[in-house]
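Hi V.,

Quick status before I head out on leave. The structure for the redesign project is tokenized and pasted below; the design run finished overnight.
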């Protein structure tokens, strides 16, 4: 699984909102083909980590490395075309566009029309509900369907690395399980996944490795199975 060269790496990254440091020197590595989860309590800095990778929040110190290159200054809008795509918390689909139009937006920088058509079919195979609802306006979809659309739209950019921020948030348990199954299927199709989750239990079952964040620091990293068995983790994050 783990290969020598990480596809994504944070080296001692510090980022802040005004004078408040949200990340206090985060280092982490993600290898090609992995699902890596970042777990932690509310406010630990999980979302900020993803936003800092995408340069939506600026790193004031440290290196964000993608495919061996430092990407700290790269405009976040350019990252999907480089294969690095974030599905933000809260979904942020286009509510006044149809499902199809939302998917087209995910491929906005691509010119290979035949490839785009194939990919639309591929994401419809992953999310059959979206095929049924392809003419429906995004804003009228249920919460679960909007989450599916947000993930499907990001797949239209053919990501190498997908950054998922709380995909299970606000969804009914059955749907949550479905979303995690789809994350695994996406990964099996060759996409490396970084998964930020409050639902540590499911996230650790889905991922190969995990990082535990506490108030802007990585306090533990290990294979997901080992984190799941760790009594401290079970007590702090799995409600035992
Ligand atoms: P949650 O699961 O609640 O989203 P999180 O682990 O993702 O938590 P972050 O959202 O990354 O945590 O927040 C990290 C810290 O940065 C928190 O102390 C939070 O209050 C602060 N923070 C986040 N966004 C902002 C903002 N826009 N302005 C100021 N402070 C912020």
């Amino acid at each position: 699984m783990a290969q020598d060269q990480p596809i994504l790496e944070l080296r001692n990254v510090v980022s802040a909102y005004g004078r408040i440091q949200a990340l206090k020197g985060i280092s982490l590595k993600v290898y090609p083909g992995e699902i890596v989860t970042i777990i932690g309590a509310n406010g630990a800095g999980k979302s900020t980590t993803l936003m800092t990778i995408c340069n939506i929040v600026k790193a004031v110190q440290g290196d964000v490395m993608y495919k061996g290159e430092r990407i700290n200054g790269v405009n976040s809008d350019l990252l999907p075309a480089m294969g690095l795509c974030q599905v933000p918390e809260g979904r942020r689909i286009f509510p006044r566009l149809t499902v199809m139009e939302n998917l087209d937006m995910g491929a906005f920088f691509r010119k290979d029309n035949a490839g785009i058509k194939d990919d639309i079919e591929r994401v419809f195979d992953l999310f059959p509900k979206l095929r049924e609802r392809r003419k429906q306006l995004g804003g009228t979809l249920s919460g679960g369907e909007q989450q599916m659309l947000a993930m499907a739209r990001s797949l239209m950019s053919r990501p190498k690395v997908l950054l998922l921020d709380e995909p299970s948030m606000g969804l009914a348990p059955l749907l949550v399980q479905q979303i995690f199954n789809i994350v695994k299927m996406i990964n099996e199709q060759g996409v490396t996944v970084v998964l930020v989750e409050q639902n540590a239990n499911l996230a650790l079952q889905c991922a190969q490795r995990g990082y535990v964040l506490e108030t802007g620091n990585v306090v533990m990293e290990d294979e997901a199975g080992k984190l799941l068995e760790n009594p401290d983790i079970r007590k702090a994050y799995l409600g035992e």
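Above is the designed sequence. Strands lie at 8-17, 20-30, 35-40, 59-66, 69-70, 84-87, 161-165, 192-197, 209-214, 217-223.

G. will cover questions while I'm gone.

Best,
W.
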